[in-house]
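Open question from group meeting: does this chain pack into something compact, or does most of it stay loose? Before anyone orders reagents, we agreed to write out a predicted structure and look at it together. Recording both the input and the output here so the notebook holds the full record.
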Amino acid sequence: MKKITLAHGSGGTLMHDLIKDLFLKHLDNPFLNRLGDSALIDTRKKKIAYTTDSFVVNPIFFPGGDIGKLAVCGTVNDLAVCGARPQYLSCGMIVEEGFDYTDLEKITLSIKAACRQSGVNIVTGDFKVVEKGAADKIFINTSGVGEVFEKAHLSISRIRPGDKIIVSGPIGDHGAAVLLARGELKFRSRLLSDCAPLSGLISSIICRDIKFMRDPTRGGLATTLNEISLASGYNISIDESCIPVRGPVMALCEILGLDPLYMANEGRVILIVSSGSASRILSRMRRHTLGRASRIIGEVERRRTKRVYLKTMVGGARILDMLMGEQLPRIC
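Structure tokens returned:
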């Protein structure tokens, strides 16, 4: 009999197969079939984006954030990368009996601060308590609604050979920070999660020349690019020397045998933009606090074998597959 494993929640191959073979099979409809970060719904007057996400990060407090901040930023970012201005959020909490009231207040204040930074409001919510041992401290679900910018023309079908790939900053910070917060390693560098709302950055650059966006959360940069390659049909090539990774993140990955290309991020966005506008969009991104370290890291190729290639620093090339298994469970 088949069993669900931690790897089914990794954002990698097993999760994608589960979504396709189970959820899409039985819940098939035009909105869900797009598999976007948000569902895009046309009303009579405007287009809105709607998304939902659940957060089970362990530990619930980590350098640079906590589960409350993460819950707001994660949902805000899923709306923003679909070209929407986040407006309204719901918040549902499942709390284990015996959970500390002071910690719940800290998380609530963190939610408040993240909402203020993102320009959104929690407009409805739910609170449940389960018996001790029936949950691990606290789980949070947030759903969000936003209005799509008129300037946004985002579609995987618009991607063409020669388009440039931009990442908004160093990768792997969130995964590394959460890993160290678990206290199982003695590592001197203090790493902070990149957890942040992307709505301000994206609203400052949104234009027709941006063809597609996605935030590389579970499965990291490599898995997200594989998703884009599979959906568009085109190969993608990225240059290792252009990919920003902080020294401490790289050192931690080398010690543990991990690959920063698969480490989770919670405040980064990948953009696919037309070749002729890449420099202009990059310049605009660098004017924003969250985009100062933005870089062009590769491009879309003409080949259509649906592969992602990494040009290595030694002059070779290797295939970057989608994440197999679970590199780090309960990262968000």
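Observations to bring back to the group:
The longest strand covers residues 84-96.
The chain is about 30% helix and 25% strand.
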